[in-house]
Amino acid sequence: MPRKMVVIFGASNILWMVFAVSQASKMEIFLEPRVAAQIGDVISLTCSTTGCETPSFSWRTQIDSPLNGKVKNEGNNSTLTMDPVSFNNEHAYLCTATCGSKKLEKGIQVEIYSFPKDPEIQLSGPLEVGKPVTVTCLVRDVYPFDRLEMNLLNGNDLLQSKDFLEPMEKKSLETKSLEVTFTPTNEDIGKGLVCRAQLHMDEIDFEPKERETTKELQVYISPRNTFISVTPSMRLQEGGSVTMTCASEGLPPPQIFWSKKLDNGNLQLLSGNATLTLIAMRLEDSGTYVCEGVNEVGKDGKEVELIVQAFPRDPEVEMSGLLVDGNPVTVSCEVPNVYPSDRLEIELFKGETIIESKSFLEDMDKKSLETKSLEMTFIPTTEDTGKVLVCLAKLHIDEMEFEPKQRQSTQTLYVNVAPRDTTVVVSPSSIVEEGSPVNMTCSSDGLPAPNILWSRRLSNGRLQSLSEDPILTLTSAKMEDSGIYVCEGINQAGISRKEVELIIQVAPKDIQLIAFPSESVKEGDTVIISCTCGNVPKTWIILKKKAETGDTVLKSRDGAYTIHKVQLEDAGVYECESKNEAGLQLRSLTLDVKGRENNKDYFSPELLVLYCASSLIIPAIGMIIYFARRANMKGSYSLVEAQKSKV
Predict the structure, then answer these.
(1) Cβ of 67: how many Cβ atoms within 10 Å?
(2) What residue stretch is flagged as signal peptide (predicted)?
(3) For 136, which of 32, 122, 237, 402 could close a Cys bridge (C-beta 3.0–4.6 Å)?
């Protein structure tokens, strides 16, 4: 229910004043004497004064009932707001204004009503000519209902009028109604039902005091006088055609539905059009056909019986499979339910050339409907596309009068070409550096044009689908993108596949060159110089000893070179070179060899312990480096390549 705010301002009709004490200045109070408020709305009563700068206000009802509202005082105004208005607000309210020793009072009467909605018109059913219908006019949530008057009109004609003068036992919102039963006629089409309600409370001012609702009459006429016309006849030869037209009267105009009555009595819906055309009729098309005219208030039906007389059907042409260029295919031409079969001849044409024929001259043991066929195998080519296969069946019974004496079926040939000559072009190359863009373009010949499917071969041999676009693009190739990519050209005639290997090269990185146990050793010690590289495949590692006379390539194993009993001449700069086809990286260290205090050989227990320990540590370190390189770095060493780098 919409709620509206009613605010009362102004001055008129003083009901009463009480002067407590006279003052030098003149004080006045303003308040409307009467106001109408609808139940559920919001109303505000405003009491105003003049002649006093700081008045105080109070509100009460004449019978000291609760205010059922909220008071707000601002300056010379006091507002009593009722949100929402209810039956408890139907009182005479007093506003008291006090200024010093002076007091004034003024009253206002709040009248309550409810008339929030237009009437509702309800019908007991659709309006059908000649059938009684009950019209109900409803007025909801009305108060006081003993002031309500309702009128129901059909156009300008008054159908019923009603007052609700019964006494109200309690204050409440009521729904009142007026019912009329009448029988629609053709003259009522286009008229309107009008429900008019009036709330007679002239002594108070509110709007609207009258509401009405109009409902245009939609008068129906149930379907009737349904009839069917059949062309050419209700008796047909097999393979013939028939057109049946149905019409029905009614308002609104009935929709036509055609159905066929099944053996179990149910109806099989065939069409929603007035005209039903059946072509190439068969024996099973015989039966009862039903036309029904249907609208909102009823339906009317009519039946017709069709009889299809037995006679050979058109031949049926079938292929053993899809027509593919170069693949043999068997075509079958079948004539079902023919009699007498010894008079039958079947001819098969491709274009205008006869390619096979057959007669069935064998004696028949009994009279019966038989199915005869002709088969032949041929190899289609693309030149056959667009040609027409014609199966012509002739029944040579010239002594009998019947039509047709020959039937035929045609089928247009469409020869497919399986995908072939599938090619893949990789740009710029199938071997690129990491971060470079790669475009792989696939094409395949065939008819119809093959669809392209890109896949990637996984480690388990399965294919992972990637794209159905002819161009597969890697905007920034990564090392993990390396692998076998498969392009497939696919159409309904077959599949053609092409593979390409994509290699993403990564320059060596994270190279490390260390000396163990230290870069500073004593003469006679054992030292291991080891070079490792990051996770890059196909990387060659070359260890060299630098010298002014030329570099010496060291015969390292998995990037590790061991010097037993290091000598003073082993001191110097050692360099590790890690390279592959994408680039190289260098690292170097300086080995410092300290001489003994004298040149005499000597033996000490400490040296024995060190020697024994090194005999165990060195192989262990070698194995650690080997497995670390195998598991994490995936590097490799080539002695052939290493020898090439010797200066």
Answers:
(1) 15
(2) 1-20
(3) 122
Contact 186, 217 (CB under 8 A): no
Other CB atoms within 10 Å distance of the CB of residue 647: 10
Parallel/antiparallel/unpaired status of strands 471-474 and 438-447: antiparallel
User: pTM of the prediction?
Assistant: 0.41
Q: Which segments within 339-397 are labelled E, that is strand?
A: 344-350, 353-359, 370-378, 388-395
Q: What is the DSSP letter of 618?
A: H
Supply the CATH classification number for the domain 221-309: 2.60.40.10
584 pLDDT more than 80 = no
Tell whether the model's pLDDT for residue 608 goes beyond 90.
no
Count of Cβ atoms closer than 10 Å to residue 530 Cβ: 25
- The CA-based dihedral angle spanning residues 451, 457, 460, 465, taken in that order and rounded to the nearest 10 degrees: -40
CATH number of 5-113: 2.60.40.10
Choose which CATH entry (1.10.3720.10, 2.60.40.10, 2.60.40.1120, 3.40.50.150) describes domain 417-505: 2.60.40.10
The pair of three-digit structure tokens given for residue 536, joined into one six-digit string? 């890059």
Read out DSSP for 186-221? GGGTT-EEEEEEEE--TTS--S-SEEEEEEE--EEE
Structural domain boundaries of the chain?
5-113, 120-217, 221-309, 316-412, 417-505, 512-644
CATH fold of the domain at 512-644:
Immunoglobulin-like (2.60.40)
Query: Which range, of 23-32, 194-203, 334-343, 435-444, averages the lowest pLDDT?
Result: 23-32
Give me the DSSP letters along 375-438: EEEE---GGGTT-EEEEEEEE--TTS--S-SEEEEEEE---BEEEEEEEEEEES-SEEETT--E
